[in-house]
Design goal:
Two copies of one chain form a homodimer. By secondary structure, chain A is of the alpha+beta class. Chain A folds into two domains: about 20-335, 2-Layer Sandwich (BirA Bifunctional Protein, domain 2); about 350-439, 3-Layer(aba) Sandwich (Rossmann fold). In chain A, about 40% of the residues lie in helices and about 20% in strands. Chain A contains 17 helices and 16 strands. In chain A, strand 12 (about 350), helix 14 (about 360-370) and strand 13 (about 375) form a beta-alpha-beta unit. In chain A, helix 6 packs antiparallel against helix 9.
Chain lengths: ~450, ~450
């Protein structure tokens, strides 16, 4: 009999197989534990929202890429494309009952119908953590400290948290060419890493005059001071280019609050080339880059957005937050680097030597599970070769043998499946003890 | 300044506030740990699939209720309405690389545009666990044992796992009226609990003759034997009505495999009224009911489906599995019963007594977090009344005071916020030790 439907995935979508999913769950668990450690609260919001709610502040790309359609009741609805806009909507709806500041974390899927390309998918899992209702530098610092702890928990080697402030380039442009299109200039700077100096100058020159172009280049060059003079030196250099401004003052405050708090203190680098794409950012912006795996991209990025909640609420509430593209990290690792070695399956398998003993296998398995051992039972007395192949594919480290002989003697035989070392004639309690000691 | 967009939720959709979300996450974590304990592997599949893939075996309700639309590339796509159909599609796509039997668990959202009503929402989180590629009674038993462990982990009081087999009513109808519409009769029996005996007889009578109606009533009455004669008595009674059949034989085998394995052994009850709605079930069917909270509905239900994978694959693979409607349970509790008391927030709050000490608060918080204490920092030196109100709303049990005086002495003051007991003049290490001992 042939199949009636061709099983296939949509372009730009992926399944997570067990080896991938166990890593994703492990990462999410660690990130969530970090947020809990900072006292953040979990929430969840629907995947579907009214389209006008999601698109209230979205730029052209989101408009084009969003999955939008009409539901059974003719409503104009869409799938969320990030977790920040739904948070703003959530805060507006629940404002009266929320603690303020409201510190929340959330993990879940978002969808963008963008052109699929390496590392870009149309469905992705994000982890977000935000503080709503505090414009204090302490909340900027907390966001950075939390981001650095998240990057540390991913265990992907050294990283830097590159930080800037939207007001730095804003002040510069206001000073040199107050007519210039700031958003256009920010977009060019955002891509500066991929351009030669000549290309950068040409691209900037499309939007402003030579003096401003030179000032922007000088601004970008200030990050060169980091190696010799540290962040304080970079900030002094920025101030020499831009003049005293709110952005530099806030970054100095963040630096002072950081003190020697690790892992942030060693990772934090003021870098005026950091812009971040979203239009809603109004203050500090940052991204986290892996030193040894730049191809993974940012593993934690965000910034301050003090006008977003006001779109949905008469209450003006500031916001600052970060986001980790967990899926992107996991799939980049799978493709480039190899996934961390986390076994998804059981610790112990009960081989089925005799279908007549099936009830005994169930009884033994229950005892092993009660002792905290993840215990798999092979369901039928297929050839042992097939059962071994199953255990090997799942990389289950221990196997338990129990046949007619063992039943008569009241024993079990334990085998370490990697080394093939056998421990016959054990009581079940002894076998459980051995496995527990090893896992 | 007024808001520009009205923040609102779609009808039939809910936000999960922190008190709800922390319970949902706790439940999901426990259910996932049970599945891991049985050696099951995690996977994830996309929320969006080709509509023809999702609807391959769906009945009329799913057709009507599914969220279906065309994407940017004109593809006919839809949101998944359960996790079982995507599993069948997943198995067909990845068959070559999967271990068999393939035991998988998955948790995630599904969507149905059904009429919103009490306890029914258009978006819901499910937890599923299934075994693919084993038609053994041992896999039926494992599914029931796992279900009973899941129900136990929800900690909602006593429960029963009511089990039947599709072949029981199938054999009965074949014997008495092989022309009758079995699916229609099953639908009536599925609703029998809400009908009087007269209504039941009338409803059955629309689809078959009096002799068959009587036999079905006799079949349903067999569950009365449970109190005096246990499951073996019910099965004997069923056999007297239906005659020897595959369904009774398989249920006897499951019973024998159960032995005295708890919590299943005490919870398992053969009940021929159990039908389950989905058309894809072919063997054992079951549902789990809470004794003290019947209004919560089934907290774990499922069955065997041996023809579903074959829709997508030339390989015929049997399946058996269970599903917990986690969202339904959580929201039913929130409405009826009160949620279990799980605090979502921090263990300790650092009150901000002086903005000039902000860097010290960050340093102290980092030390507390490193010691495993979930530590919140109030970001600015607002009035203490406001800071206390924040801590009270989050039910944070400990507060730490550190002002100019403490800074000079090198001490902190710890306060138990519920009892208002104060511990002044502690070293930071002593305070950390006290909080750790209490949490």
């Amino acid at each position: 009999m042939g199949s009636t439907v061709t099983a296939r995935l949509l372009k730009g979508f992926r399944d997570a197989t067990p080896e991938v999913e166990v890593v994703r769950r492990t990462y999410l668990g660690r990130l969530e534990a970090v947020a809990q450690g900072f006292g953040y609260l979990p929430i969840e919001t629907p995947a579907l929202e009214y389209a006008d709610v999601l698109l209230a502040r979205a730029g052209g790309d989101a408009q084009k890429e969003i999955y939008r359609f009409h539901d059974h009741g003719g409503r104009d609805i869409a799938l969320r494309f990030d977790l920040t806009v739904p948070l703003a909507r959530f805060v507006a709806v629940h404002a009266a009952s929320l603690p303020l500041p409201f510190k929340r974390y959330q993990s879940g899927k978002a969808w963008r119908g963008e052109k699929p390309q390496k590392g870009r998918y149309r469905e992705f899992v994000q982890f977000d953590a935000d503080v709503i209702g505090s414009d204090a530098a302490a909340s900027d610092l907390e966001t950075l400290a939390l981001t650095a702890r998240c990057a540390e928990e991913l265990q992907l080697g050294p990283f830097r948290v590159a930080v800037s402030h939207r007001d730095v380039i804003g002040s510069l442009v206001r000073r040199h060419d107050s007519e210039a299109n700031l958003v256009a200039l920010m977009r060019v700077v955002d891509k500066a890493g991929a351009l030669s100096r000549e290309e950068l100058i040409a691209a900037l020159g499309e939007h402003t005059g030579g003096e401003t172009v030179q000032a922007i280049c000088d601004l970008l060059d200030t990050s060169g001071s980091y190696a010799s003079e540290g962040n304080a030196g970079v900030l002094d250099a920025i101030e020499r280019v831009v003049g005293p401004c709110e952005g530099v003052a806030r970054l100095r405050e963040i630096l002072s609050l950081t003190g020697d708090q690790q892992p942030l203190a060693s990772a934090l680098q003021v870098d005026p080339s950091i812009m971040r794409g979203f239009e809603y950012y109004t203050g500090m912006v940052f991204e986290t880059q892996l030193a040894q795996m730049p191809q993974v991209g940012s593993v934690g990025a965000g910034g301050r957005y003090d006008d977003l909640i006001g779109l949905y609420s008469s209450q003006q509430l500031s916001g600052v937050g970060m986001s980790v593209g967990v899926d992107r990290v996991v799939h980049a690792l799978a493709e480039e680097q190899g996934l961390p070695d986390i076994r998804p399956g059981g610790d112990l398998i009960l081989f089925c030597l005799d279908d007549a003993l099936a009830a005994d296998y169930q009884r033994i398995a229950a005892a092993c599970r009660a002792a905290g051992i993840r215990t798999d039972v092979y369901p039928t007395a297929r050839k042992l070769k097939a059962q071994f192949a199953y255990a090997e594919q799942l990389r289950i480290p221990f196997g338990l043998f129990y046949g007619e002989e063992e039943r008569e003697r009241g024993t079990v035989k334990l085998k370490e499946l990697l080394t093939r070392q056998e421990h016959p004639e054990l009581s079940l309690e002894e076998a459980i003890e051995q496995v527990r000691a090893a896992i």
